[in-house]
Amino acid sequence: MSRYHVDKVMRELIQDEAAAAAFRADPAAYVAPRDLDPEERAALIACDYRTLYRLGAHPFLLWGYVRAAQAEHAPESRAYADALAPLGTPDFGT
Amino acid sequence: MAQLVEIIGVTHNPVLPGIFQQRMDADPQVRPAWNNFHLMGEKLAAARPDVVIVAAGDHLNQWFMDNMPPFVVGKAPLARGPFPHELSLHALQPYEVPVDVDVAQALLRGGYEHGVDFAFSDEFRLDHAFTMPLTYLRPAQDLPIVPLWTNVMAPPIPPARRFYDVGLAIREVIEALPGDKRVAVVASGHMANGVGGPAMRRFQDNPELPFDLEMKARLEAGDVEAVLREATWEKLMAVGNGTPGFLDFVLLLGVARGARPSYVALNATRVTAASFFMSWDAPDGGPR
After folding, report:
1. What digits encode the pLDDT tens for the residues B225-281?
2. How many CA atoms lie less than 13 Å away from B127 in the CB half-sphere?
3. Alpha-carbon gap: B212 to the closest alpha carbon of chain A (Å)
4. Nearest-CA distance from A88 to chain B in Å?
């Protein structure tokens, strides 16, 4: 588990529009140098927020990342929240 | 002798300014929330403070898990915010005020005397947890503050009793300040809410939650032990991942030494999470 590094990537995309644009252009290249588990890396690249949530990504950062990474293609907040509901409240401590 | 002239707790929901500006009639409880912000601003003005200590939880904007402090005092001469990405997401306004560095230093030194090792920072930006409430409480941006950040976001966070004890220590420090400074304490926080978790849109179906109503009743009664007992990390997280923001209200309860507040209000809506307000007016019994 490298939740800290998942959270760090997500925070960068939220705070820095240039970073978000670089990620949207080539997510695999953006996360290539990061210290991530294969499952985390694949989920970040695919913006698979259900998997990231299950793995313990910080929820507050996760929602911001989804919007930064997907821009106008991001899900509505209700659909996003409903998709997470079956997963409960995973530990997101780093 | 310094005087504690007002204690105020408010929500810092960054969605509210946009609702206030464009959708005031979206729910019957929106306008009462707006009115409560203005009531709190009037209370603050009536108390005529020289400085406001503002306690709030940063949202992983200024502080992060590379070096996460539980409680931090800002002592740079100027405080400004919010963050640029917050301005682009929400209808927030820039806010900039001087920091009362003397009071910041007194908090740091006095903290050590009263069992609290505050961290400090000489370079920071305030996020919406500070600027959103201050925009309504003091729109003139003419009152010095001392920012006090709390970690309510990144576990392990301090337990509720620690927030209460830090509040008690702040009260001791204020009362030991030299001169005749008039000091107010403001904290921003949340009742039950979720941002980025499954509870994020719960208010659409269930605006008035048992957690909120029960906590409001405990605070109104000044039932410190019940508040602390029901504000564990597990119990707060069970009603939404943003609910640990409630702990900044627990800190205020400590500043008030557990006294019953003068005013408490809860505005639950179906358009955003419930807003909570409370105040202790003339908490040390001195003249206004």
Report:
1. 999 999 999 999 999 999 999 999 999 999 999 999 999 999 999 999 999 999 999
2. 20
3. 20
4. 8
Torsions phi, psi for B264 (to 5 deg): -140, 135
Q: How much of chain B is helix, strand and coil, in % rounded to 5?
A: 40, 20, 40
All residues at 6 or more sequence positions from B142 whose CB lies less than 8 Å from its CB, including other chains: B97
Chain B residue at shortest CA distance from A76: B201
- Measuring CA to CA, which residue among B148, B248, B227, B153 is closest to residue B194? B153
Q: Are B70 and B150 in contact (CB under 8 A)?
A: yes
In which order are the strands placed within the sheet that holds B51-57? B119-121, B71-74, B145-150, B51-57, B182-189, B3-11, B275-281, B263-267
Inter-chain CB proximity A60 and B59 less than 8 Å: yes
End-to-end CA distance of chain B: 15
| Separation CA B171–CA B190 (nearest Å) | 22
ipTM of the complex model: 0.96
Convert the pLDDT of each residue in B22-47 to its tens digit.
Answer: 999 999 999 999 999 999 999 999 99
CA-based nearest distance B197→chain A, Å: 5
Task: Give the pair of three-digit tokens for residue A4.
Answer: 């800290």
Domains and CATH numbers, chain A: 3-87 (1.10.700)
Distance CA B270, CA B225 (A): 31
Residue with tokens 């926080």: B189
Contact at CB, A78 and B201, closer than 8 angstroms: yes
